[in-house]
Design goal:
With about 120 residues, this protein is mostly helical. It has four helices and no strands. Helix 1 packs antiparallel against helix 2, helix 1 crosses helix 3 and helix 3 packs across helix 4.
Length: about 120
Amino acid sequence: MKDVNEKREREKRTVSEMIALYCRKNHHTKKGQMCAECRELAEYACLRSDKCPFMEEKTFCSNCKVHCYKPEMRERIRRVMRFSGPRMIFHHPIMAVSHVIACKKEKRRIERNERG
């Protein structure tokens, strides 16, 4: 169970950092702060991670077949990911590389399972 909790916390840290980066660059907040809109999105994303029943099997929400975000929040998080994803390598290189590796592994695992 410890592994799932670590995974959950890592996902929450990653998404929070991505939202913070988006907020800093688009809403011109200071480092370590977020505007009310981005703070709401970060809290929502963390709540969804806390309630996720698939945490053991999946790596990231983008790889999940069940979309538990409300449509409006899903669009907001998608915008954040599109903006922050490519920039994470400059702001959080270890987190970014870990994310890419985990995504590649997950993609290979899914392809293996689909082939049977």
